[in-house]
Amino acid sequence: VQFDKAGRPFHFLYYTAKQNYYDALHTVANKIEELKKAEVVMLASGHEPDYSQNDEFNYTQWENKEIFEQRFLEKLDDEQYKTLIICLNRLVKNPMAYTIKDYINSFRTKLADTINKQHIEPVKTKFLFKKSKLKII
């Protein structure tokens, strides 16, 4: 955290105690508003958004809570993580979301990557045979 000579913090969200988290929410809200304006301009010019370009988001998923905590350098509780994901989902559902796909994908991971990261143990078959002792009487 940086302060000026008078001791005031530079970041306007300093007093929220989780300035990086709330800054991300603020940025997402601004992006949603920008997309709405871009959609209005596009519709006014007689064009339709290409909804099929948002399909690439179907092959990715949001990062988990621990990754967001590392990114923000702040601990998040489950409710804050849920709120962030709801806001990001709202951003992705916008018909113009494909125009900011780099920003959106910075919070997402490819499904194939998560599958590749899972380590699956090979099946080990081990048979134990007990030799029965036959006693001849």
Key structural traits:
single chain, 137 residues, mainly alpha, two-stranded antiparallel ribbon, 5 helices, 2 strands
Can you give a write-up of this model?
The termini are far apart. It contains 5 helices and 2 strands; from the N terminus they run H-E-H-H-H-E-H. The protein has helices spanning 19-44, 65-72, 78-92, 101-105, 111-117; strands at residues 60-62, 108-110. The chain has 137 residues and is mainly alpha-helical. The radius of gyration is 26 Å and the shape is flat. Helix content is 45%, strand content 4%. Helix 1 runs parallel beside helix 3 (78-92). The longest helix is centred in the N-terminal third of the chain and has 26 residues, at 19-44.
Question: What's the helix and strand layout?
Answer:
Elements: H1 19-44, E1 60-62, H2 65-72, H3 78-92, H4 101-105, E2 108-110, H5 111-117
Antiparallel strand pairs: 1-2
Strand arrangement in the largest pleated sheet: 1-2
C-alpha Rg (nearest Å):
26 Å
Mean pLDDT: 83
SSE class:
mainly alpha
- Secondary-structure element pattern, one letter each: HEHHHEH
Shape: flat
- How many β-strands, per DSSP? 2
Task: Estimate nothing, just give the exact number of structural domains.
Answer: 1
Distance between the termini: 88 Å
Largest sheet: 2 strands, antiparallel
The fraction of residues assigned to DSSP E strands is under 5%
Q: How many individual helices?
A: 5
Helical proportion? Answer: 40-55%
Low-pLDDT runs? none
